[in-house]
Amino acid sequence: MDGNTRICKKCLLREMDEAGFFQNMYDYIARIPADDKTPGEEYERRLSICKECEKLLSGMCRMCGCYVEMRAAIALRDCPGKKW
Q: How many CB atoms within 10 Å of residue 46?
């Protein structure tokens, strides 16, 4: 397997401790191929918009159910509320 291969561990969130969950999320973001990843400045801009949004709850978008850090990390994704 190359470094870009995503491996699904078939974990449920309730089976992970909080640190394990966040590590899993950041590992996923780190493995996004460079061509698919949002550039750093744009990623931070997206997250700053999400932080101000009334639909953000514990890192999750209440409009679509995604974790905003994961959605913002993928260049072709957009905000379901059309904010970015």
A: 21
User: Model's pTM, two decimal places?
Assistant: 0.77
What is residue 57's predicted lDDT score, i.e. its pLDDT? 92
Residue range of the domain that includes 25: 13-73
Domain count, the chain: 1
Q: Report the alpha-carbon distance of residue 46 to residue 41 in Å, rounded.
A: 9
57 in the Ramachandran plot: left (φ > 0), alpha (ψ -120 to 50) or beta? beta
pLDDT tier at 1, thresholds 50, 70, 90: very low
- In contact, 61 and 46? CB cutoff 8 Å: no
